């Protein structure tokens, strides 16, 4: 029982510290220490976990990725490239809402943890022009990025869930398609219902010059995407090449020296978020070492709770606690798959996947949410005012759909 209380207590402490504007990395590190003490790891195991977490190639890759992503996004803003991108989209699209939907959706295809920070400056450029409040811009950046994960068959955790359960990804997509549509419609209405005059005056129909400007503006990020996802190049290196494209632009326009550009780039990096990555990964590894999430699931099963609430609570809670959908799938699916019936198994698997994604989406330690809130300087309470309703409705609709299809 103590590890369960410890996990809950650590989340409360983290949330309280974040509310009082404590540094994200410090809050996560203190949360990890609470789990070290309550999880009975011992000093030696705690240090060993910290060491392994810091030198973990995944941690290093993620930290480098965040460094280059924040640097690239910010320096594209400083050099005017983001403004060119927004201007060209506005000259090509009549409705600004399409731009706010398209930006995080397209950049979300990066499928890298924390990739939402890449679309945040773009969403901010458009949102500020129409006087959208920061909480709405956070919700737009998060929801239009993540709602597609319910039906995107190349999403890594969908592939993972499919392989573990031996259920076709198409079955998961079919179950989740109406739920994704609900999330899209509700998010659209919540964000844009009271937004007046979302039509922009820069629309010019077919404009070859605007199209060229658009292609030139997206080339730094497109280069990173093609190199990383198309050619399989190490992700930080791929983004670094995107940074070099920006340097080439600046050299052509201003003959800027490499030293000056490097200094400007380093000043554009959000070093606080880079350091926070190590604390977040340590928190995740401490939870795994202490086995707290597995204990929560085991405790619920031992109490004789029926399968349906377990299928809702455990995947959702695992996503909230870990802030990692990969870790959540890896824990919840092996636990529940032996309990699922053979007939209609794909419905149970899709339902668990849906609950897992929603828990991951709303988790206060979800890296994308942390990075997006930090960028827009928006409190967690203000963020949830717009951000919680679509996932809750998806969970309710998903549960009703599950009951309808299974006759549970």
Q: Give the overall shape.
A: globular
In sequence order, what are the helices and strands, one letter per element?
HHHHHHHHHHHHHHHHHHHHH
Average pLDDT reading: 82
Fraction of helical residues = over 70%
The gyration radius over C-alpha positions equals 22 Å
Distance between the termini: 31 Å
Largest sheet: none
**Helix vs. strand class:** mainly alpha
Q: What's the number of helices?
A: 21
Strand tally, please?
0
Low-confidence stretches: none
Strand content: under 5%
Summary of the model, kept short:
The chain is mainly alpha-helical. Helix content is 79%, strand content 0%.
Describe the model.
The protein has 408 residues and is mainly α. It has helices at 2-19, 24-38, 42-55, 57-78, 81-92, 96-107, 116-129, 134-146, 156-165, 169-192, 208-230, 235-254, 258-268, 271-290, 292-302, 307-322, 325-336, 345-362, 367-376, 380-387, 389-406. Helix 1 (2-19) packs across helix 15, helix 5 (81-92) packs across helix 7 (116-129) and helix 5 (81-92) packs across helix 11 (208-230). It is globular, with a radius of gyration of 22 Å. The model has no long low-confidence stretch (mean pLDDT 82).
How does the SSE layout of this entry go?
Elements: H1 2-19, H2 24-38, H3 42-55, H4 57-78, H5 81-92, H6 96-107, H7 116-129, H8 134-146, H9 156-165, H10 169-192, H11 208-230, H12 235-254, H13 258-268, H14 271-290, H15 292-302, H16 307-322, H17 325-336, H18 345-362, H19 367-376, H20 380-387, H21 389-406
Helix pairs in contact: 1-2, 1-15, 2-14, 3-14, 4-7, 4-12, 4-13, 4-14, 5-7, 5-11, 6-7, 6-8, 7-8, 7-19, 8-10, 8-19, 8-20, 9-17, 10-18, 10-21, 11-12, 15-16, 16-17, 16-18, 17-18, 18-21
């Amino acid at each position: 029982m103590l590890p369960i209380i410890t996990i809950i207590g650590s989340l409360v402490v983290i949330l309280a510290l974040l509310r009082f504007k404590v540094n994200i990395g410090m809050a996560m590190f203190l949360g990890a220490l609470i789990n070290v003490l309550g999880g009975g790891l011992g000093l030696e195991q705690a240090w060993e976990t910290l060491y392994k977490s810091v030198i973990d190639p995944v941690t290093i890759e993620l930290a480098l990725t965040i460094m280059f992503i924040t640097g690239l996004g910010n320096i594209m803003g400083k050099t005017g490239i983001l403004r060119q991108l927004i201007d060209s989209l506005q000259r090509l699209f009549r409705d600004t809402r399409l731009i706010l939907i398209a930006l995080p959706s397209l950049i979300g295809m990066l499928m890298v943890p924390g990739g939402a920070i890449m679309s945040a400056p773009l969403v901010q450029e458009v949102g500020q022009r129409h006087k959208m409040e920061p909480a709405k811009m956070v919700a737009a950046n998060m929801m239009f990025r993540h709602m597609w994960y319910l039906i995107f068959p190349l999403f890594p955790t969908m592939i993972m869930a499919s392989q573990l359960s031996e259920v076709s990804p198409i079955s998961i997509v079919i179950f989740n398609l109406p739920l994704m549509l609900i999330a899209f419609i509700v998010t659209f209405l919540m964000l844009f219902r009271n937004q007046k005059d979302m039509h922009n005056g820069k629309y010019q129909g077919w404009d070859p010059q605007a199209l060229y400007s658009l292609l030139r503006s997206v080339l730094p990020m497109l280069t990173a995407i093609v190199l990383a996802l198309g050619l399989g190049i190490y992700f930080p290196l791929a983004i670094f090449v995107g940074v070099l494209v920006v340097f080439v632009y600046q050299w052509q326009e201003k003959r800027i020296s490499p030293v000056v550009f490097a200094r400007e780039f380093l000043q554009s990096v959000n070093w606080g978020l880079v350091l926070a990555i190590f604390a977040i990964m340590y928190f995740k590894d401490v939870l795994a070492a202490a086995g707290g999430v597995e204990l929560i699931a085991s405790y619920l099963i031992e109490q004789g709770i029926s399968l349906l609430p377990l299928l809702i609570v455990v995947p959702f809670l695992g996503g909230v606690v870990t802030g990692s959908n990969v870790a959540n799938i890896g824990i919840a699916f092996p636990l529940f798959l032996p309990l699922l019936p053979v007939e209609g198994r794909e419905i149970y698997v899709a339902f668990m996947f849906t609950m897992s994604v929603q828990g991951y989406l709303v988790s206060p330690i979800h890296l994308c949410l942390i990075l997006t809130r930090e960028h827009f300087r928006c409190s967690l309470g203000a963020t949830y005012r717009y951000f919680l309703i679509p996932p809750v409705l998806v969970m309710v609709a998903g549960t009703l759909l599950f009951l309808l299809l299974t006759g549970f």
